[in-house]
């Protein structure tokens, strides 16, 4: 269950990061509210997952899901630049996440 909470926490990190981008520096109400609500949900789920997943593992996976998820959303929905170097970086992050998960007790 902790791993599911961590996964969902990471997905909410993507939600709040994208909403923050859409908030235009917190000048737009609804994206700003989505940012704040997404942050709270993400942090609560991360905190709950950390009850049984080691700190380093949980935090690394949470931020990795957020980083790669934000990259994918940026490229697919926001028209951000896609390059070989950025894809390689994302693959390296995912590889690190897999290794971190495999090393978790």
UniProtKB/TrEMBL annotation:
Recorded coiled-coil stretches: none
Keywords for the protein's UniProt record, in alphabetical order: Cell membrane, Membrane, Transmembrane, Transmembrane helix, Transport
Cellular compartments annotated: Cell membrane
Record-linked InterPro entries: EmrE-like (IPR037185), Small_drug/metabolite_transptr (IPR000390), Small_multidrug_res (IPR045324)
Membrane-crossing residue ranges in chain numbering: 27-46, 58-78, 84-104
Pfam families reported in the protein's UniProt record: Multi_Drug_Res
Signal peptide (from-to): none
Superkingdom of the source species: Bacteria
Protein topology in the membrane: Multi-pass membrane protein
Recorded family membership: Belongs to the drug/metabolite transporter (DMT) superfamily. Small multidrug resistance (SMR) (TC 2.A.7.1) family. Gdx/SugE subfamily.
Protein name as annotated: Guanidinium exporter
Organism: Massilia consociata
């Amino acid at each position: 269950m902790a791993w599911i909470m961590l996964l969902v926490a990471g997905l909410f990190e993507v939600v709040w990061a994208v909403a923050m981008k859409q908030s235009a520096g917190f000048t737009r109400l609804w994206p700003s509210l989505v940012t704040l609500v997404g942050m709270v949900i993400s942090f609560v789920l991360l905190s709950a997952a950390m009850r049984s997943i080691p700190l380093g593992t949980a935090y690394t996976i949470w931020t990795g899901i957020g980083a790669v998820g934000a990259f994918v959303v940026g490229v697919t929905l926001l028209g951000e630049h896609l390059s070989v170097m950025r894809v390689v970086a994302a693959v390296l992050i995912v590889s690190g996440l897999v290794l971190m998960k495999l090393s978790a007790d």
